[in-house]
Amino acid sequence: MAAATKPSPAGQVSTASGLSVGDRWNFQVVDKWRGEVVRNYSTQVKKVLPDGQWLTGGGTLMDPLGRVLESPRSDTQPRTLYKPYQARWWEDMQVGQRRKVEYQIEVQNPDGDPTLRKVVADMLVKARETVRVPAGEFEALRIEIDASVDSTRGSQRWANRWLHTYWYVPQLRYYAAVDIEVRSQTGQLERRDREELTSYEQRQGALALR
Fold this sequence. Notes:
By secondary structure, this protein is mainly beta.
């Protein structure tokens, strides 16, 4: 693991895992029902904080490994908190490893009545394989996440199942693709998307000049 760069007069410029200010990953979101790209977005390391957490250009707070801690209010979504973090991956993963992770999500709805979610996620590093996306081909760790989600808002209660498959690329220190499925308590498919890396910029590491 790369050592963290000492803070410069302008502030800390990289995390212990090697993410650096200016690193950027551009994605397209494919609606797999419709078979078409429905939106594009970018995640950029805008600022590294003294504790190694970092902020994106849009104000999302990430932990040093790139797991979401807090997303700010925007035109399309309310402020959302993840405690301790959104389960995605972990440090020094190896094929065959399993983890069970519990975390909470608080969605701060505009009307002041929050949605609270308890997530219990079974995580498995399924394989090391090549993933092909518009940005190219990458050697990735395939991480399968099967999560049960219990949600409440006021007197309302409901349950879902979230199935996420990440292709995490160690050289990118981020993911190249993720398949997302959301199912109701009865198993009905409610959402089926794929996010794919279209391009990237990286300041350190083997892929920095590609």
